Amino acid sequence: MNTVALVKDILIDALQLSDDTPIDAETALLGSIAEFDSMAVVTVLTAIEETFGIEIDDDEISAEVFETFGTLCSFVEQKI
Asked: Start and end of every Carrier domain (predicted)?
């Protein structure tokens, strides 16, 4: 499974969204999805770290990373 599909699965699981929720690179995250609060950010980051075997430092996290689904995927791809 590719990075984009895995990150989408992580978001759907963490935010408890329907499997058929439309998510693409332009999908806005922070401020646009009600379920995507600060606790969801922590849950998503933890799942990303576990799934991809990476470590994300606190200083790497910014609102820009979570601006859209595409920016989040790009961040993950840079880390792996």
From this structure: 1-80
